[in-house]
């Protein structure tokens, strides 16, 4: 397999339109995600909201050769993307997405990289499949699905108990007004913000009211 950083640059650099996957995960974020999976010695990673697969593939390329399974959960459908209260411009954009084409590009990239054995795509709403996971089983979770306050808060409540003590929660678009309440609730559930970037952050489960 090619050098990991080279692959992530190819897939996440918007200056390379012929190879970049749909999405917003930057090269720097993708590299940090892959390194976090390494550092966490993760065995199970879960992504809520996959879209083109940039960050999902970053997770799958982490692990330093260890057996690490990565689950990407995304309905790839208009209805779930518009749930909750969203800005009109966001509703317009998400209502016009060609979800089947985005899913095809994601699957094609996974197959091309030969990582199908590590990646499980689940075409579903995250809240519909959360009960399939035992408490404390997830080592690294990336929340990047519907950003409405209603959905982001519901995901925090449902998925926080699934993250292992000492595990990590990557929160996308922390600068959006609609995600502020969810971030506060995540901290109330025993997660501490340990790294903060322009538009995303990493929290760690250090205790508290996780059940």
What is the fourth-level CATH superfamily? Vaccinia Virus protein VP39
Figure out the total of helices. 9
Main pleated sheet: 7 strands, mixed
The count of strands amounts to 7
Which structural category fits the helices and strands?
A: alpha/beta
Tally of structural domains:
1
Structure overview:
The termini are far apart. The chain is built from 9 helices and 7 strands, in the order ααβαβαααβαβαβαββ. It has one domain: Vaccinia Virus protein VP39 (Rossmann fold, 3-Layer(aba) Sandwich), CATH 3.40.50. It is globular. It has a 7-stranded mixed β-sheet with strand order 3-2-1-4-5-7-6, sandwiched between helices. With 211 residues, the chain is an alpha/beta fold. The mean pLDDT is 94.
SSE blueprint and pairings:
Blueprint: H1 4-12, H2 27-40, E1 44-48, H3 54-61, E2 69-73, H4 78-81, H5 88-95, H6 99-113, E3 119-122, H7 126-129, E4 138-143, H8 149-159, E5 163-172, H9 180-188, E6 191-196, E7 200-205
Parallel strand pairs: 1-2, 1-4, 2-3, 4-5
Antiparallel strand pairs: 5-7, 6-7
Helix pairs in contact: 1-3, 2-3, 8-9
Feature tags:
alpha/beta, 7 strands, Rossmann fold, single chain, 20% strand, 211 residues
Tell me briefly what this model is.
It contains 9 helices and 7 strands, in the order ααβαβαααβαβαβαββ.
